Amino acid sequence: AEMFGQLTSGLESAWNKLKGEEVLTKENIVEPMRDIRRALLEADVSLPVVRRFIQDVSDQAVGTALIRGVRPDQQLVKIVSDELVKLMGGEVSELVFSKTKPSVILLAGLQGVGKTTVSAKLALYLKKLGKSCMLIAGDVYRPAAIDQLVILGERVVGVPVYAAGTDVKPAEIARQGLAEARKKNVDVVIMDTAGRLQIDTAMMGELKDVKKVLNPTEVLLVVDAMTGQEAAALVTTFNVEIGITGAILTKLDGDSRGGAALSVKEVSGKPIKLVGRGERMEDLEPFYPDRMAGRILG
Ligand code: GDP
């Protein structure tokens, strides 16, 4: 199924219930609002986020004056669209760079979400913006991840990769890598880190140590778009534990139901900055809340 397909059709049934109505009233939005609520929950949007969203939309729907020539269903579509954009952060959130070289981007996230892939994609993305980059391979629990990053970084993207094997502590790798980046005078250094299958204290401890060493401008949590309801708890925990500056949503090309895209900003206050929509190195782009809302509304 196409991503958001189910959400889109769930919302359509809400608009359809208003066909033939003259205005939006407290009474005639009850059924459509129930459809919207169900559609969002089925899309794995976190419950508190759904509640707030429904409240905001309902308040506006009954408070909105009748606009000549605009049917009530169209009016509700407009309100939902605006609220969806707002929910996802409104504007595009650009990456932040430090005034002094190098800017440091720390990537965190669970295992398998696409962190290593994103590291290399991000280097290519920044290279295209005219920035010189260096990668640091910090996934010490997966030797294959280190090899993969070296191959992707050096051979495919064409940026240097600092690797120190799996026997060195991540914070030490970070320290050495940062020193190397200074020597090379690169604009941006990106560090890949080790994930786990689930959140655990050892992972958080390592990330805190690495963060202390790197003093990064960006700490980006890589989130798999397929993560359902758990996305809210995941983002909250990482934000509370290590402090994130934003998220990168991966695997948007899959048939995820979309909940993560809609929950991240609201639960953490931190925006999705970039999205990955494929396995190719070029498949990384800024996150546009308005375009995403457009896709959801079909
Ligand atoms: P890590 O454990 O977080 O470092 O995850 P990896 O970078 O090794 O990625 C895990 C798998 O997901 C690999 O098979 C990647 O090719 C795949 N992957 C990563 N990003 C995307 C994406 O945006 N779309 C798709 N379809 N696959 C992706």
UniProtKB/TrEMBL annotation:
UniProt domain SRP54-type proteins GTP-binding: residue ranges: 271-284
- Reactions it catalyzes: GTP + H2O = GDP + phosphate + H(+)
EC number(s) on file: 3.6.5.4
Reading the lineage from the top rank, the first entry is Eukaryota
Of the GO CC terms on this record, one is: signal recognition particle, endoplasmic reticulum targeting
Spell out the molecular function terms from Gene Ontology. 7S RNA binding; GTP binding; GTPase activity
Could you give a single Gene Ontology term from the biological process aspect? SRP-dependent cotranslational protein targeting to membrane
Keywords, ordered alphabetically: GTP-binding, Hydrolase, Nucleotide-binding, Ribonucleoprotein, RNA-binding, Signal recognition particle
**Family per record:** Belongs to the GTP-binding SRP family. SRP54 subfamily.
Name this polypeptide is given: signal-recognition-particle GTPase
Species of origin: Salvia splendens
Q: What is the lineage of its organism?
A: Eukaryota, Viridiplantae, Streptophyta, Embryophyta, Tracheophyta
